[in-house]
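Researcher: Next entry in the queue.
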Amino acid sequence: MIYIGMDDTDVLESRGTGELARQVAFDLAKEYSVLGVIRHQLLHDPRVPCTKNNSSKAMLLGDGAGIDLSALAARVRALMLADFIPGSDPGLCVTLAVPQEVVDFGLRTQKELVTQAEARQLAVRHGIYLEGLGGDEGGVIGALAAVGLTAWGDAGRYIQVGCCRELAGRLPVEAVLRAGVDVIETAEGKTITSGLVEVDDLRPARRRGLAVAVVAERGGHWVPVRLD
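Model: Structure for this entry, 228 residues:
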């Protein structure tokens, strides 16, 4: 798989990083297998400069073998710079291999302060493409963290997977699974195989490396429970 992380591409009055990530994913889908776009929640702390909630985004691409990562990084870089928002501090990370040290870094960003220097040194040590694309380049922290957390497989939620964003109303479990969700289960881990699921604003969690729609029963049907 190929991991693409991005962060801090917006300001309070602009489109969010999630929207930009989905736009980039749409462009890449013309040539690559886009498996999803994932939002990761990082540390909530007044010492952390952020637009609103301090989240970063990752794109997950399949078919990594034989891909020119340098060309891919250049393409994403160009797309991000073409939509650069003055006042933002974007960062971009692209990699095929995600070592445990990068996963650990991602986990740390959810509970403690880290620095640009740490992120950059870690990327250099493992030969990972990591670049700041403007401003103070603080987005390199979240970009690397998003890659690590996505590779870990037990954090974040999908803001795009399959055709889930096109769904509306209440649909049978089978239809939700066909739309790109891997598993539907309760918060207690019970797998749901039948019934109707409320799909408006469905954003599956990334758990066990899968797109997992966590639901709760309400009024005879299943409603999504949003995690992270």
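Model: The CA atoms of residues 90 and 139 lie 5 Å apart.
Researcher: Noted, moving on.
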